[in-house]
Design goal:
single chain; alpha/beta; 8-stranded mixed beta sheet; 16 helices; 20 strands; elongated
């Protein structure tokens, strides 16, 4: 059974009765709320708006909205209008033709709405009430004409939901408060959204209502966000909520930043190893964190990631580099990262293109946020499926932004939507037309169909093949430089060993010569200075080449595979570990020779 989401927005700001003050917010409320609910990247609702309708039309649309639904449907009904209380204490929603003395006949009773909600077969129903409940406004008056208390939530929160179904009601204010439009309600004030609906729209549109940062805006998230926002704007207005739901109801996708996972800290023994004074112990702790980083339970892996980031920031260079190498394993690596659908007929359904996410579970756990409304993304077990909406012609170009716990990546998507082919013929097919000339003979001519001008010329998109060709040389640059750095570092170590061996022999011969010996002659004879000089040069160049390899890797990260990046980090780390000690020993040996040779 396919899930569907439907919304009905009822917005009334004009009233025939002179006693009902004209409202300024509903028109703007309806337009803004329709935009975010309809957006496929936010609410993905099918939205209908009923504007300044009569009571009879409102009842027809409301009952029709709840009829013929299935268990998989989610329904959202939003009222932005006056709320009126009858003498018996019943709540009514004002229509354009409402007459306050005849509420039962000319307004929509809350019990009617409640009955439609109770009778629908839809699995989830949500009601938003952005109404004033204290009474109607007098023309020219900025105060509410009090008519006693009406408890709005009690008008709806009476029935337990049927198993597998649920309902929720969120009101802009409680029973004795007015749902404010901005700061005031003066007759000459400019139209502005109501405080309540503005908070709903803003929370959904910006993603700030995603309080737990899980990539989705639940009903509870939205209520908490709206409550805080409304109370900050107007302390005299208090939104209320009543709900009977089985499970969590997600109202929208979040456009907020990276997702958040509640981490499970590493065991105390591992944390103690991370803080040890022994370098080898801390190195072993990093390797254990690497194992936990690949855990199939995301909270465990996230705890390891946070500890590794702490090590990468605070430990000595050797351990910090090792932690950074481990963290590189959870970079978001979609494959491919460029999708070209080519030419697609308008209105057709192109086949879906698959994108595979590589690495451990934490590296594959991300939120996909398309930057264009024509892009469609569906998660799969191994990654994503992408397809495009072909409703409009032209060259389409957009991105899918992937946001993980600590990394971002982009999948670029392109397509060209052309005119649909006519049945039975191609775009170049001609037709024949028979005419009669002046001599009475029939002439048959080929009539060419009108040519549809091509889309505006744009620079040709870079295809995946061209991208691979252009990157083939640069994708090997960093590993190659890292290999050169390692070779130079090994050369430095070997020449240092040769220099020290020659120096030891020279010193021993100098001792045998007694008072007539000269250490400079012995060193020169055995050639100790040449390998020492080579060691210094090779070690220094190894460090420079290794640094350049790391810089190129960071500057062109998107051009390297995870294996290439990991190999580069490993080779440069080994090269650094060999070159630095060799340079230090070579410098000390040189200083010793320069200082001590005159006295030998």
């Amino acid at each position: 059974m396919t899930e569907s989401r439907h919304a009905l927005i009822i917005a009334n700001e004009r009233y025939a009765d002179q006693g009902l003050k004209k409202l300024k917010a509903p028109a703007q409320d309806a337009a803004a709320l329709e935009r975010v609910l309809r957006d496929p990247q936010i609410g993905d609702f099918e939205v209908e708006v009923v504007h300044n309708a009569s009571a009879d039309l409102m009842r027809r649309r409301i009952q029709g909205f709840f009829n013929d639904r299935s268990r998989a449907d989610t329904l959202l009904l939003h009222f932005s209008c006056h709320g009126l209380k009858s003498e018996s204490g019943e709540l009514y929603f004002a229509a354009s033709d409402t007459e306050p003395p005849l509420l039962a006949a000319t307004a929509v009773a809350s019990q009617f709405v409640r009955g439609c909600m109770s009778g629908t077969r839809a699995g989830r129903t949500v009601l938003f009430l952005d109404c004033c409940y204290g009474g109607a406004f007098s023309r020219g008056s900025s105060s509410v004409r009090a008519s006693g208390e009406v408890n709005v939530l009690e008008s709806f929160a009476k029935d337990e939901p049927v198993s597998g179904r649920g309902w929720a009601v969120i009101t802009a204010s409680d029973s004795m408060e007015y749902a404010f439009e901005g700061d005031h309600l003066a007759e000459n004030s400019a139209p502005r959204p109501s405080v309540f609906t503005h908070a709903v729209v803003e929370g959904l549109e910006t993603g700030e209502a995603d309080l737990d940062v899980d990539g989705k805006v639940s009903l509870d998230d939205l209520y908490e966000y709206v409550y805080r926002h409304v109370r900050e704007q107007n302390p005299h207005q208090t939104p209320k909520k009543a709900a009977e739901l089985h499970g969590e109801l997600h109202l929208a996708h979040s456009r907020r930043g990276r997702i958040k996972i509640v981490a499970i800290p590493s065991p105390p023994s591992l944390q103690a190893a991370m803080n040890s004074d022994d370098v080898l112990t801390r190195q072993g702790a990093v390797m254990e964190l690497r194992r936990r980083l690949r855990h199939t339970e995301l909270p465990v892996a996230e705890g390891a990631r946070q500890h590794l980031e702490e090590v990468a920031r605070n430990d000595i260079q050797q351990i910090a580099d090792l932690a950074s190498d481990v963290l590189s394993e959870i970079r978001l690596t979609p494959s491919p990262d460029h999708l070209d659908f080519g030419l697609i007929p308008k209105g057709s359904t192109p086949r879906k293109r698959s994108v595979t996410m590589h690495g451990p579970l934490l590296a594959r756990h991300c939120v996909a946020q398309p930057t264009q409304s024509w892009l469609r993304v569906d998660p799969t077990g191994s990654g994503l499926e992408v397809h495009v909406d072909t409703a409009a012609e032209g060259h389409l170009s957009g991105d899918i932004v992937l946001k993980g716990v600590a990394d971002e990546s982009v999948i670029h998507v392109e397509a060209v939507v052309g005119p649909a082919h006519e049945p039975g013929g191609g775009p170049s097919d001609g037709s024949t037309r028979t005419t009669h000339g002046s001599d009475g003979k029939r002439d048959t001519a080929i009539v060419e169909p009108p040519r549809i001008p091509p889309p505006p010329k744009t620079p040709p998109p870079t295809t995946a093949h061209q991208t691979r060709t252009d990157q083939s040389s640069t994708s090997r640059r960093a590993p190659a430089l890292a290999g050169v750095a390692l070779a130079l570092a090994v050369t430095a170590v070997v020449t240092l060993v040769l220099a020290l061996q020659a120096a030891v022999v020279a010193v021993m011969e100098r001792g045998d010569d007694g008072v007539y010996g000269n250490v400079e002659d012995n060193v020169s004879e055995h050639g100790a200075l040449t390998p020492l000089t080579v060691c210094l040069i090779a070690g220094a160049v190894a460090l420079v080449v290794g640094a350049f390899a790391r810089h190129d890797l960071g500057a062109r990260r998107e051009q390297y595979t995870r294996q290439a990046a990991s190999g580069t980090h490993t080779l440069t780390s080994i090269a650094k570990g060999l070159a630095i000690p060799a340079l230090i020993l070579a410098v000390l040996a040189g200083i010793t020779y320069l200082v001590g040779s005159p006295h030998w």
